Amino acid sequence: MAQEERTTQSIFTDVEDRTSSEEINKWERTTRLWRETLREHWGLLTDELSVKLSMLVVALFVLVAIFAPWIATNPPLQRQYQTEDGILIAKWVEPSILGGNSEYILGTTAQGFDIFSQLVYGTRAALLVGLIAAVFTAGIGTMVGLVAGYYGGTVDDALMRIVDFLYGMPLLPTVIILVALLGPSLWNIILAVIILQWRATARVIRSQALSLRERPFVKAAQVAGASDWHIISRHLAPNVLPLSFLYGSFAIAWAILTEAGVSFIGLGDPNTVSWGTMLQASRAYSALQFGAWWWFVPPGVCIGLLVISGFLIGRGYEEITNPKLQ
Amino acid sequence: MGKASFVIRRILQLGVTFWAVGTVLFFMFRLMPGDPTSFIISPQMTPEAREQVIASYGLDEPLYVQYVKFLQNALTLDFGQSFQAKAPVQEVIMTYLPNTLVLMLTAFAIAYFFGITLGVLSGWYRGSRFERSTVITALVARSVPSFWVGLMVLWVFGAGFGVIPMSGMSGLGSDTQSFWQMVFSVDFLRHLAAPALVLAYYFMGYPLLIMRSSMLEVLSEDFVDVCRAKGLKERTIMFRHAARNALLPIVTAAAIALGYAVGGSVLIETVFAWPGIGREMVRAVLRRDFPVAQGTFMVLAATIIILNFVADLVYGYLDPRVTYD
Amino acid sequence: MSVLEVENLEVYYETEEGPVQAVDDVSFSLEEGENLGIVGESGCGKTTLAKAIIGILPDAGYVNRGQIRFDGDDLTEMTDAQRRRLKWEEISMIAQSAMNSLDPVYTIREQITEAIEAHRPGTGRVESTEIVTEMFELVGLDPDRADDYPHQFSGGMRQRAMIAMALALEPSLVLADEPTTALDVIMQDQILKRVNRIQEEINSSMLVITHDVSVVAETCDRVLVMYAGKVAEEGPVEEIFNQPYHPYTIGLKRAFPNIRMPDQDLLSIRGYPPELVDPPEGCRFAERCPMATNRCYEEEPEAHHINGLRSYCHYADKIDEELRPRADDAETWKQTEAARAQTQTQQPGMGDD
């Protein structure tokens, strides 16, 4: 609550200063407002140990993703055991960390791919899916929510019926069908996730916008003749920013889980390596029955670590924005 | 009076949502690039049979006629013929849906029983080590992909110790007459245990976390103090008053979550080769058996839509304060 | 014989910054059939005191020292089970907020019956129905509406229902925490009169906790004025309000409209009560007291018994000759240290919750 008060107050100043200030300063003040909100929340967020650890984990994964070509010891989709004329000698290699006599830290897959390198490149796919999906779901959801909540009436009704309809679609089956029809690629998976996932953000942001538009600072701006777009972007948006971030961080987690699931089913991108496709391959080659756990345990652990970090950061953020949970 | 009109309005909305889902599904399959008939007609058919099927589906007619026909058929729950099974889609659905329901409801009952109980306790004993460990367990349950947990369970208990079967719903040689006879056989329970428990573990996190935060909210209310002042036993306050009030958001959440759970059944059924509707949908998609894909998808969507509706109605009965304006 | 004796009671709250000394060295006693008002600003420890007496302190709160004797038995020494038996049967409460003190998912009858059955197991349906009907009539509610849910009642009706529940077991002590804050003045008056009448009928004592001086004047025999966790002054209602011997009571009295002197300016005590994590030495009111001397900042005041009052002011003996004329002048209150620090912000000093 204290959070809200403070943000509100700075917006009040914004309104009161209007008459005395120049047009150029407006933009400066808006950015300052956004910056202050962000900094304040960041400070509160990093207070908690679990959040700090989660951020560390995410940072680590980001580093691995960026420097994948230098960390990975082999190209992820290059068969390590091939005769000169390209014939594969199917061969399992035990991981070197278990004393296996090879250069492969986590051994190779039944197809002869280096597992460790696949794991490293899989980080790229996971973060790509997570971040792009999160930015778009939070972005689209926030815009739709603000517009619906601010205008109300028919606009609100129409947009909310779309959201209701999307809530009637089962997430994974819909993504599966969309990907099956559009063709299996990482981009189509991301697209399918975005199409379905903005619904949650839109619903929450809308109800926030509904209450915000009745607040005095919005009324004041309206009376002062500010345009709708001005009010939405300068007065409403900064106030719902915390919620957008919250839903964005949850969206990262959901997108990664969905990609893993779709890939596991066999609709993953055949030209990229993701943790989901690794699990799918390990299952297809019966790694379970052979007890080759170094093939299917690491990808699951990576997904779990990344997703739980996302959830913990989200929860930490939720506790800041909703003091009742503390 | 308010209640009746509320129910009627919701039923109308329900119809609109069904229509929207059906329409989107129809156009999704028809407007995709490529030959539309390839979605409906198996390539292995003879030319005569092909003509016949094209005509029977009205594929030689304009799109809007096809659309009207699709809606008419959908109303009678007719989604056409399966290419693979050479049987009506309806029949395929009726074979697999009960299996999914048995698995889901078992997992759900276990998950909500333990999730709610642990949520109540962790809200009541906030700040304790017990609370912290349950919250972390719940978060882990929600974060680690359930299909991977399934793989681990199969690896350790199936391939490793050999105490659970690796796949399916019943072992070789088990021969039961009816569905219900099968459900209550020991062999079936042995097959059910692993997927149901893995799913239950995955589902549990949600009610647990909701129940906990709902409890925290309720415990800060004045009537809890009055209950304590009344000299009621701690257990009475915890369950009869605090949990009963905290339960309200859970009921809606549970009905909605059950809908999504059925939708999410896809992965667990695939891992454990459980012959359910989710796995059947995936197989249909992979084999391009589009009538079955359409039909099974409609069933999954319908579960969600109907349970959302039920959640709204049930909430009114549980919370005497709800008004239907 | 005293129903309730509180002796040197200290109630603390555990916080990250250290224990908050919410109630500090409070002593008083309450006779049978007597009504004692406890007044003070919000945060002065009066609600904590009530919660400690009835035994519903939150997890972080605990009795650090002192005794709470009920009918001669020390409540702080009792086991949970022993205490539970006394609750509601002997000590009941009328909770602060009429809106939220009833469980929304049960009917009023269910909630009253629950209290009856928790303490008198085996009470039949007929008998508990009788009690509910009787109590509803006593508080002026239609017994036919006992099967309504709390949300179907108006604020005033809910408060009456709460009172009916509090008195259903005819307890010998009732703690009323801001019993009428949520109500309008007319309703307030009606309900207070009714409570007093019922109370006389069942011969119970009452502790009325409020920040509203007029409620105390109307219902109580004696008053205990609390400030920052400590007793400031205590004595019979008439004396306390006519001729108080503590500057805080004088200020508090002047902060509310007085029927007998309608033209008198209302004044506000500037500043805020001190933080109780690290309370100041000396008199806790010193910073906001216009007549404070160095002694007030250094030395903790002892009890002074004057005129049947118990005042914790160093200068209680001299109040009559020197201080009262000054304290009665509204100008004086604008010269406190807290006021000087606050001249820019212009915040009112008396917050009412």
What does this structure look like?
The complex is a heterotrimer of chains A (326), B (325) and C (353). By secondary structure, chain A is an all-alpha fold. Chain A contains 13 helices and no strands. Chain C has an eight-stranded mixed β-sheet, with helices on both faces. The longest helix of chain C has 18 residues, at 185-202. Chain C is α/β, with parallel strands linked by helices and 353 residues long. Classes of the chains: A mainly alpha (326), B mainly alpha (325), C alpha/beta (353). The interface between A and B is large, with 45 and 53 residues.
CATH topology (level 3) name of the largest domain in chain A: MetI-like fold
Calculate Rg of chain B over CA atoms. 24 Å
CATH homologous superfamily grouping of the largest domain in chain B: MetI-like
Distance between the termini of chain A: 12 Å
CATH homologous superfamily annotation of the largest domain in chain A: MetI-like
Helices and strands of chain B, in order, run as: HHHHHHHHHHHHHH
Structural class assignment of chain A: mainly alpha
Q: What would the principal axes of the Cα set say about the shape of chain A?
A: elongated
The overall pLDDT average of chain B reads: 82
> How many structurally independent domains of chain A?
2
Question: What fold name goes in the CATH topology slot of the largest domain in chain B?
Answer: MetI-like fold
